[in-house]
Structures are given as structure tokens and as C-alpha cells.
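So, is this right?
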Amino acid sequence: MPPSTLLSPSELSYLQTSLSLEPPIRPDGRSPTTFRPLVAETDLLPSTNGSARLCFADGTEAIVGVKAEVEQTVGASDTSFTSHPISADGDEDTKMHSAEEDIDEERRRHARGKGQDSWIEVTVDMPGYGKDDDGVVVFLAQMLQEGLVADGGLRDRLWLGWGWHWRIFVDILLLTAPNSYPLPLLSLTTHLALLATRLPAPISRIDEDPLFNDDWDAAQSLYASSETDANSKPPFILLVISVGDNIFFDPSREELAVADAVCAVTVGTPQAPLYTSKSRGGEPKLRLLSLRTIDPPARLAAATSTTEGEDDQGAWKAARGGMKRAMIGKMVKMTVEPGGVGEEVMTGLDGFDGG
């Protein structure tokens, strides 16, 4: 968890009042849906299949490396495969190109629903926290893996054929101590790393042991490897808070300190070709993959407000009770609706794609 804010109860009360206004006033002047500036780069680790580094405006920085290896699928069986012959008409280049397209299409056609959750492994390393036994690190790793698994499309992309698959390892390192809740930073960095991930192009058919093109220039992107799924993107997580009746995206540490409720919303793009509807600007509609409520810092820290029933206008009182369904629905709608916050984030991240 990020360090607690150093604001006094009276300062917290002033901040909570400012955020509850209509329109609300954020400490840094942002609108409720505006994100803080960030700096990102991809393809910076040469020994990985994909990598990315992302730094938030508060100095918090993360780096993600993705590595892949071929594994044999336990219990796999070939029960429904029918091979289609490749036409021999045309010159050698035409036949080779036709063969590669036929193999790729054959693999995509059979891969739907074949992927397994265990083919994706996520690890998180944070300064000052244990890697495997610390509750915060384990929770963050599970949240990130939950989104990747819920997407469904990623695990299917790892299917190579009857008996073989890719296994990917997503190693996430937070380079600096977190100044705010690190989940969105880690998720957005993972999104960019997966976008930049490239895998050797298979040249074998799905009923054969896997063989790959040894020319790295011919490597295929893990995402958008064909026209049919050119709009498919990795999922990502947005942190959303509510203060009073107002909703805020990308909250700062101070805003988190006075949040009535905190929600982690995981969104992704629909899988082609099952979903064909388009939103504004030709981008695919986003879909909700998972949603988790997170205890606000005020409920985890020692109480600093006055006791219940007292009327002290100078002290901030932490919110009591749960999160209303209407507020959750509003958060989700603002995230996934056409032209909403989720699409704005997706469009912004596309500008960093180095694949």
C-alpha cells in the first residue's frame, strides 16, 4: 500500500469538501476523468519477447518484461482436426505466402476455447515487500492475472496446435516506492509490454510438432497479428473512486485518503469475430472483464476523525457503510461506454505501441 497522506484532519476535511462540490475541484486542477501525465517506452529489454517501462507524474515507475517458451500440453488429443490441402498454383513466392496464410488461419480457427489459465504466469516485485509471501504483492499479482485470464483471447493466442502451446511469464517490477496505489501503473505497463510482445512465426501445421521461422523480422505480434483481430488489445485496470456523488479517475494519494469508495475496473476489447459492433471512431466497444472494490485507506488506518454523533466541523470523518449499486453502475458505464474514459485511455496507450 502507498504511504499514508500527511494531511491533517482539517486539511482532509477541506479536500473532501472540494471534491464533493458540483463541479468538483481537484487539488491539481484536473477534471474528474483526466489522467496525470505519464512517460512510457517499449522494447527496451533485449532478452525478452516484449517489454515496457512507464512512469507516472509523481515519479512512480514500473518496468515489465514478457518471456515465452514452448511447452507440451498435458492431456491434449487430436479428435476434430481436418487438414486442408494448399493449392500448388502460382509461383514459389505466391505458394509460400498462401501456405503461411493458410497455416495462420487454420490455427486461429481451431484455437478458440483451447487456451488454459495456467499458460499465463504473473509475478510482481515491489521495493520493501516480499515477492511471494507478502499479502499486498500476492493481491496485486492475482488482480493482474485475473484480468489477463478473464480476457480469454490471450490464452487462446498461446495455443500452437494439438499438443503444444506457448507459456508466457509476465515479470513486473515496481522500480520506486509507490506514492499512490500501484495497481493502475502495473496494469498499464503490462498492457504496453503485451502489445510489444512478438513471438516466432510458426511454420508447422497444428497436427505437427511446432517449427518456427528463424527470421526474427518475420516474428508475429502477440496482438493484432492479423486483420481479423487488428482491434484486439490487452486488458487493463483503471482505479476509480467516489467522493460524495462525484466519480474520479486516476486518483492521487491525497484523493484516495478521502475516498468514500475505491473500485478497480478491468476492461478489454471484444474477441473477433464473435463481436462486430463498432463504437465512435471505428474502435471496438470495450467490455467489462472484472470489478473489485478495494477498502479505502481511511478504513485501513487508525481512526483520526471524531467519534460518531459529534459535530466537529473542523475534522474529517471517514465514510461508513458499503458502496451503492448505482454508484458502481455509474463507474462501469463511464469506463466502458462508447467514447468513454476506457476508450480514451486505449487510444492514448496506442501512441506508445512500439510493436
The mean pLDDT is 81. The first helix runs from residue 9 to 20. The longest strand covers residues 61-72. Residues 86 and 99 are 6 Å apart (CA to CA).
